[in-house]
Amino acid sequence: MKSLLTFALSISLSTLNAQISDFKDVDFVKVENIVKLNQGKNLDNLPILVYNLTSKLSNDVEKFRAIYLWVCENIIGDAYQHRAVNKKRAEFKNDSLGYITWNNGFKKIAAKKLLKHKKTMCTGYAYLIKQMCFIANIDCKIIDGYARSFETNVETLENLNHSWNAVKLNDKWYLCDATWSSGYMINGKIFIKDYNDGYFLTDPVLFAKNHYPINKKWFLNDSLTSNKFKPEPIVYGETFKHKVLPISPKNLKTFVEKNQEIKFVLKSLKPIFSEDISLVDFSGKEHKLCKIHDLKNENGIITFKYKFKSRGTRDLHLKIKKDIVASYTFKITKPKPLEKF
């Protein structure tokens, strides 16, 4: 069993490294300057905007970066649409045809608002990226599916609630999520602009931690397409920002015995100092730092252990500096009595 686990782990990590290094030699400084020069431009004439963003760039990677970055920096998440769609999803929870009918009509309203006010939600972001790529002659798809967060699709895939993009660059498909790159909502009411580059051409293994496409081929990883959905630890935007992949424990909920040690394993795609790693226990409004031991940080593989000294249910959160990057729930039970011989 140990050898199989080691083999599976080596596949995941080699895939991760290959993905992140595909464009390591591309300098996006010129792209970023062009995006800044076109800051605040409207969407009245999309071909002109795309021309201004891409005409001086030499390859599709740079052109897509310009399109993606401009959309993330200039389109605002619409709290009204966010609330309206969530309300209708709940209302039509058991009536998919009713929701589709409502949504088809709502899309027309949403499209007008996007073009006029540059405000939208996930479908609008994905649609605009696709349209701009079409003008730039870049192959791009809209991917519909399930987004996992601490609020929805935590343990089962109940709500079809998100859209993102797949883009073909140098004859290879990549994944990205302009909605989550652009910022985040607070209580579904206020949109905070906060660009997160972690969702740009993200490795499929990490992307699958909170994106589950309807069509499994858009996992872009054969090892993922054959797997059934299982509730894994919750990850966050900060997980993508730090480029961290939680590997173990594998499940959101884990049963352990009192005084049992659990080993935590994560893969880091960029350097992380050992002193920046911590495990926090949240109990109600209070939180305390967990005493971890045997911390090792070698070649991007970080491991440490923690022992549960009391029974009950615990919510533990893995942090990098001040950011939570993974959340777990542990049910600690009474140790089983030793068998008598």
Short description:
The chain has 341 residues and is α+β, with helices and mostly antiparallel strands. It has helices at 2-20, 29-37, 46-54, 60-74, 79-91, 96-117, 122-135, 178-182, 204-207, 222-225, 237-241; strands at 76-77, 119-120, 140-147, 162-169, 172-176, 183-186, 190-193, 211-213, 244-248, 253-257, 261-268, 277-283, 286-289, 293-298, 301-307, 312-320, 323-333.
Query: In order across it, which strands form the biggest sheet?
Result: 10-17-16-12-13
Radius of gyration: 22 Å
Helices, by number, come to 11
Structural class: alpha+beta
Q: Give the strand tally.
A: 17
CATH architecture descriptor of the largest domain: Roll
| N to C succession of SSEs | HHHHEHHEHEEEHEEHEHHEEEEEEEEE
Low-confidence stretches: 1-18
Shape assignment: globular
First and last CA, distance: 28 Å
Question: How many distinct folded domains?
Answer: 2
Beta-strand percentage? 25-35%
Q: Classify the helix fraction into a percent range.
A: 25-40%
By CATH reckoning, the class of the largest domain would read Alpha Beta
Largest sheet entry:
5 strands, mixed
Overall residue-averaged pLDDT value: 85
CATH topology (fold) name of the largest domain: C8orf32 fold
